[in-house]
Structures are given as C-alpha cells and as structure tokens.
Amino acid sequence: MRSDGSARAEPRTRTRRRGTDGFLSGFYGAAMGIDISGYRGRSTFITGPEKGCGKTSFLNAVLGALRGEGGCPGILGIGFDGEARDALTGGSRPRIPAFAGETVLTAERFLRSSQARFEILETLPGTGALGRLVLARVLRAGDVLLVGPERNEYAALAMRLMREEFGVDTILADGAMNRITQVSAFGGARFVYVLRADRSNLDRQVAAMKRLHFLAHLPRADFTEAGEEGGPEADRPGAEAAGLPKGAIPASTLGLASTPVLIRGALTRRVAAELGADGAPVVVEDFTKVFLEWRELATFARRHSLSVFRGMDFAGFTVILRNLGRAEFLSALGDPGLAGLVTFNPLEVGTEVRCA
Predict the structure, then answer these.
(1) Of 108, 251, 335, 355, which sits with the fewest C-beta atoms within 10 Å of its C-beta?
(2) What beta strand segments (E) does 37-100 contain?
(3) Which of 55, 331, 355 is nearest to 206 (CA)?
(4) How confident is the model at residue 212 (pLDDT cuts 50, 70, 90)?
(5) DSSP three-state, residue 129
(6) Is the dihedral of CA 216, 67, 78, 163 positive or negative?
(7) CB neighbours of residue 81 within 10 Å
(8) Could you tell me the CA-to-CA distances from 278 to 261, 274, 275, 289 in Å, in that order?
(9) How far is CA 185 from CA 54, 169, 229, 249, 324, in A?
(10) Do the beta carbons of residue 39 and residue 59 sit within 8 Å?
(11) Largest Cα–Cα distance of the chain, in whole Å?
C-alpha cells in the first residue's frame, strides 16, 4: 500500500520500446558509441566538481545508450533540493528527458507542470523546500526536473524502493560528491566524475584528478567488532583522554588490536597538524570527509596510512576538453594508470563511455 492508502503499482515488466521514442533514443546511443555494459544492473552516481561541468550531458548520453537497448532506468538527483532556478546563475535547473516506462524521483508539484504523464508509485516521507517528493513512473515521454531529498536516508529509501518494489535494476543519479557515499552504502554502487578542462585550469584539474583517484582507492578499514552494524558507534569516549584532535577517538577503544585513529567528521589541515608525524594509522568515515588539497594529502599519506570505513567503487573520469588537445591533456596528466581511467567527451562521435 502507498502512504495515501491506495494500491501500490505492480513492478513493470521491461519491454523494448518501439516507435519514435525508441528509434530516437537508439539512434542517440549508437551515435555516441557508448558501451554501457558497466551500467546495467547497477546504481551509478554521476558527479563533478562544479555546476556546468557536463554532468547533465553525460547523464543524457548514458540514458540514450540504455534506451537504445530498450532499458527502463530509474533516474534521480542527490543533493539538489531548492528553488527551480539556479541561485548562482539565475538560469533554470536542468530538466532531463524521460521516456515511457522509466521511474523518476521529483517533487509532486513538477508533475503537473510537465508535458509528460506520470503514475505516482510512492510518496517519500517528509517534505522539502519544493513540497512532497514522489517516485513516479513515466507513462508519456517528456521532460522532468530531478529533485533530491534533504535527508540521506530518504534518498537511500528511494533507491531501495526502485529496486525492490518497482523492478528497476539500473539507476542513474545526479549526485553531489558530499552525499553519495552515505546514500550508497549498499553494494553495487559506483560513481563517475565528470569535469571540464582547458589551458587556464589544466593544472588545477590534473591535481584534482590525482587527489580523487588516490582517495577513491583508499583501503577499507575493518570494524567488524565495533557497533551493531559493523561500524563505529556514535558516542564512543576517548578522544580528549588520549590527547587526540577533537572529534577523533582511538580505535583501540573499539576492541581492535591495532591502534589507528578514527576521525569523526572532517580530516582538515588543522586536524592533520594536530595528529603530528608519529605515523599512526588514520581512518575516516569516507573519502568525502578528507579536506586536504592534493599536495597536503600527499604529504599526509607519507606520514600516515589512511583508510576509510565506507568506500565506493570508482568507474573513472569523463573529461570534456575546451581548446585543448587530448595529447596535451594526457601529457599534463603524466600517469598512464590514471589515463586508463579517462574517457573523453561522449558527445564527440567515435568516443565511448567506459566503466572500469
């Protein structure tokens, strides 16, 4: 039963689209040369460093390829809840073309303003700045405005409902970097990082890529004896008594044989300085809690082994170049291993969207 007492919709059966919508989506995916084998049956978060970095274009490219195979993905946003216009630019928030059979998460008010037709499957708990959020199945194609829940647990609930209740096996999320790891603690999730590079920001983007690659591949700490769900409990004592930075606790209090330091909250420059250079292993909740620039992080990693409690699979970079050749970009990157995780603009004919 839905929260309003009406009957819950039955999970839809996947069918290959026919007619104009299927033709156009199939043509779009084929023209992009997209290999989406790594996306099928998984939840993928499409992230980036800033607005206008190309996330929406990349999302539409992957959606086009999935539609070309007759797929009916679920689509949602993580970390966007607010006015329908961008507060920084004054422009409209990007809308995503949605096709019949797909499942979307949006605000109920936007269903009425869309040219598409929908069937409401479920109403999420609580309300945001834009009102009630709903999971809806698209009955007639049209644009939809993605709206994300304010609370991480509601985003996780939406994804779980898509999979377990409504038969959606492939989910794409426009995800804010500071929230994806909390929402995607369940297995099978991954993220892609989309960025734009030109000569004016080349050094900064290369440093950002090296930093993210390092953080995304941090080993995962084992806290099997800590907390009811295998994780550190919320209110363990010990940080001040051990003389550690505020917000940190010694992992020995968790019943572990070794003595790493578990950082509560952010690993900032100040916290790193207070830890000193004694080489103690350090554990953070997830890589988004590390607030050190690349050079600072590299220095810190030479002094301390760093690991995460909660990790997430990394599917690689998508790089959109402006007035910059690929050879010049790869030369600046200077790392063949890192270059192997790079896919260039999928909107250029002949390129591929790859998943490592």
Answers:
(1) 335
(2) 43-47, 74-78, 95-98
(3) 331
(4) very high
(5) coil
(6) negative
(7) 16
(8) 12, 11, 8, 21
(9) 26, 17, 12, 23, 37
(10) no
(11) 69
What are the Cα distances from residue 356, in Å, to 7, 23, 274, 308, 318? 41, 29, 37, 21, 12
Which pLDDT belongs to residue 86?
41
Q: What is the pLDDT of residues 272-293, one digit of tens each?
A: 998 877 778 899 988 988 999 9
Residues 51 and 86 sit within 8 Å (Cβ to Cβ)? yes
Encode pLDDT of 243-276 as tens digits: 445 555 555 554 444 577 888 889 999 999 988 7
Q: What is the CA radius of gyration of the chain?
A: 22
CB contact at 8 A, 96 and 60: yes
Please report the pLDDT score of residue 28 as a whole number: 44
Contacts of 77 (CB under 8 A, 6+ apart): 105, 146, 147, 148, 173, 174, 175
Per the listing, tokens 């603009």 go with 345
7 C-beta neighbours (distance < 10 Å), count: 7
Express the helix, strand and coil content of the chain in percent, nearest 5 each. 30, 25, 50
Treating both helix axes as pointing N-terminal to C-terminal, what angle do 326-333 and 202-216 enclose, rounded to 10 degrees?
60
The tokens describing 61, both together, are 């490219």
**Beta-carbon contacts of residue 206 (< 8 Å; ≥ 6 apart):** 332, 333, 334
Q: Tell me: the pLDDT tens digits for 293-311? A: 999 999 999 999 899 888 8
Of 206, 216, 205, 169, which Cα lies nearest the Cα of 316? 216
